[in-house]
Amino acid sequence: MTEKFMSMKNLKFTLHSRKGKYSSKTPGFLKDHTPKTIDMILKAAFDLGKKVMHPMFEEMDRFPPVLENGRVHVHEGVRPMLETLGKDGWISAGLPEKWGGEDMPASLMHCIYFIFAAANYSASTFSGLTMGAANLILSFGTKELQDVYLPPMLAGKWQGTMALTEPEAGSSLGDLSCEAMPVEKEQYKICGEKIFISAGDHDGVDNIIHLMLARITGAPEGVKGISLFLVPKFRPESRGSLVENDVTVTQVFHKLGYKGAPITGLRMGENDNCIGYLVGEENKGLAYMFQMMNGARLEVGMGATGIATTAYHSSLEYCRTRHQGRKIAEPKNSEQVAIIQHPDVKRMLLFQRAVSEGALALILQCGMYEDIFTTDPSQTDCHLLLELLTPIAKTYPSEMGILSTSTAIQCFGGYGYCDDFPVEQHFRDMRVHTIHEGTTGIQAMDLLGRKVVAQNGRALMLLKEEILQTAGEARHSAGLDDMADQLVSYVALLEQVTMKIAAMGKNKGMDAYLANATLYLEMFGIIVIAWQWLSMAHAAATKLEQGVPKKTDQLFYEGKIHVATYFYSHELVRVNSISMTLGCETMVTLAIPEACFTD
Ligand SMILES: Cc1cc2nc3c(=O)[nH]c(=O)nc-3n(C[C@H](O)[C@H](O)[C@H](O)COP(=O)(O)OP(=O)(O)OC[C@H]3O[C@@H](n4cnc5c(N)ncnc54)[C@H](O)[C@@H]3O)c2cc1C
I need a labelling partner for 545 at 20 to 30 A (CA). Which of 273, 408, 410, 491 fits? Predict the structure, then answer.
């Protein structure tokens, strides 16, 4: 197991090199945090990741949660970890002071989550879920619900969950059937089944608080009839006693990776005694839940980024120490060289950096838009940009992270395929990210079907302005003109392709419009990451132009420019072939009848 699971230097560089119209003009980004306070926060998060989460990374995978007598047992380190996260204020960090929080900017919260996910992805998810659930209670719950539930959740003693999925309602949440029957004011009897609920039960906490979607008896069909409920495993009664609430764990799922976190099936109301408390107004549950899901989608992207990052560091360490073969020009009897000297191995390392560092930059760009909008709600353009980029920030790291962690395995050769090294676990842990919080297909339809067309394409226009500004600024640095030109031409290509798809949609209908949405998302994602790489290359070139006394810093900035060059020569060009497919009038995915999928 590598000690170096992430680079603090790279994280700080990425956080501090945000560019574009909004980074300089608008107050609010990073609030009143100085580089010094940021350093302190990140260092404390790193220490926690290194000392508490990282040491149990392998064990949590080897000894996954088990269901025994209706209770899910997790790794013994989970309870003390959650207590520390609660006691030291990490769970409440993003909340207002009233709740013991620090109103921490989203950008910093993303950095913290990145560190935790890189240290141990499974371990990082417990508190992330509680934070999301606490935010929902704070935004939409009554004062009474807030007073009872938030303190123990924020202290890490109670676990929060997000309970949406049902056996017959996964991607299609409008079809969920879990029922809520009114009992008395704001109290309902809940009856139904949920599956795949992360941290849905475990013995690392004293209570589980489900933020659950259900349909009030007689509510309209579809998404318009879904309400949000708080459903505890144990109901707090008067004088602090806890009463069991008829939530049964039906199973704990056995997964490919991400094994340290329990994913459970739940049955509510088996004995007609499961009480849920309405959160917010009736039938607005899905809209409320989307608040949590949008944040959670960025978190999934950051989780994937964290895993890809630690896999890169593992493979880098190996490539520096593994000696195999000789340089082609060297004599046959010369010493074997470290494999990092082979161009093809450098390619594999470049690819991993291009993906993980590019993804980190994109999510921090989203964090910046989020912070500006939260501080000044009149900055609606930042909100639009955040909305447009969220499906990409979720999907690019997740889809490319699979390839990136697979490449990490390749760097190790045979050892990569065995459990002697952690990269096989990173590969397995990564795989879920394209599935949970909405699959890639669903993100793609969100991008093309909703975000791109919203307000007559205003978000796309704003993004174009941001990208062109970065390209214009980058031209001031010697050697970046070519990348800037390429980026500008690929943005023009994206516009052309978008118009072509819109025209096909007009002529042939919505099915045709969305048939290749996933490919469109892929193309969009590559261009957006190219934008981030040009921005980073420009920041690095500026530092070099200013003069960098330390050799290690000089190599760091030069390395950034090399990775940007790699991205443009090896990754961005893939957009050409994708655009050809997207421009194709004959759509095989629409044309082929289901019956042609013969055995
Ligand atoms: C490890 C793990 C943790 C999870 N944690 C949680 C959790 O905490 N809370 C929670 O509520 N859920 C959770 N989930 C559930 C997760 O969100 C769902 O698995 C996911 O939304 C997909 O739903 P599904 O599994 O029913 O797949 P399906 O909806 O059956 O999808 C199967 C395939 O069909 C595609 N598809 C479906 N509908 C369409 C369509 N209309 N157009 C095109 N393609 C389509 C999908 O993209 C996918 O490729 C978790 C899942 C996993 C694996």
Answer: 491
Distance 91 CA to ligand 1 centre (A): 27
Alpha helices, DSSP H, located in 376-455: 380-411, 423-430, 440-446
**How far does residue 198's CA lie from ligand 1's centre (Å)?**
13
Ligand 1: residue of 165, 178, 521 to mutate (most ligand atoms within 8 A of CB) is: 165
* Each residue's pLDDT tens digit, 191-219: 999 999 999 999 999 999 999 999 999 99
CB 207 within 8 A of CB 234: yes
Query: Domain 31-283, what architecture?
Result: Beta Barrel (2.40)
HEC string of 137-156?
Answer: HHHHCCHHHHHHHHHHHHCC
Mean pLDDT to the nearest integer, 411-428: 97
Residue 27 scores a pLDDT above 60: no
466 is catalytic: no
In whole angstroms, what separates CA 124 from the centre of its chain? 12
Q: What is the pLDDT of residue 293?
A: 84
**288-327+334-588 is classed CATH 1.20.140.10:** yes
- Note the pLDDT tens digit of each residue in 471-487: 999 999 999 999 999 99
From residue 368, alpha-carbon distances to 131, 287, 382, 491 in Å are 20, 23, 9, 22
Residue 338 in tokens:
């470290």
Stretch (H or E) spanning 278: strand 275-279
- Helix/strand/coil for 136: helix
CA 521/CA 545 separation, integer angstroms: 36
What 8-state DSSP symbol labels residue 112? H
Closest-CA residue, ligand 1 atom 30, reads: 170
Distance 438 CA to ligand 1 centre (A): 6
Residue range 286-341, pLDDT digits in tens: 999 987 788 899 999 999 999 999 999 999 999 999 999 999 888 889 999 999 99
pLDDT in tens, 320-334: 999 999 998 888 899
Q: What residue ranges of the chain are covered by domains with CATH 2.40.110.20?
A: 31-283
User: Which residue from 436, 437, 450, 514 has its CB within 8 A of the most atoms of ligand 1, so it is best to mutate?
Assistant: 436
Cα–Cα distance list, 413 to 316, 324, 336, 419, 423 (Å): 13, 11, 16, 12, 11
Top pLDDT among 285 and 27 is at 285
**Residues in contact with ligand 1 (CB, 6 Å cut-off):** 162-165, 170-171, 196-198, 255, 258, 263, 432, 435-439, 441-442
User: What tokens were used for 278?
Assistant: 């309405």
Residue whose CA is at the smallest distance from ligand 1 atom 17? 436
Q: Concatenated DSSP letters for 566-593?
A: HIIIIITTHHHHHHHHHT-SS-HHHHS-
What is the band of 17 on the pLDDT scale with cuts at 50, 70, 90? confident
Closest C-alpha residue for ligand 1 atom 12: 165
Residue type, 343: P
Q: Which of 437, 466, 522, 571 is catalytic?
A: 437
Q: Which amino acid is at 441?
A: G
Taking the centre of ligand 1 as the mean of its atom positions, its distance from the CA of residue 295, in whole angstroms, is 17
Distance of CA 40 to the CA centre of its chain: 24
Phi first, then psi: what are they for 34, rounded to 5°? -100, 165
Ligand 1 atom closest to Cα of 442? 47
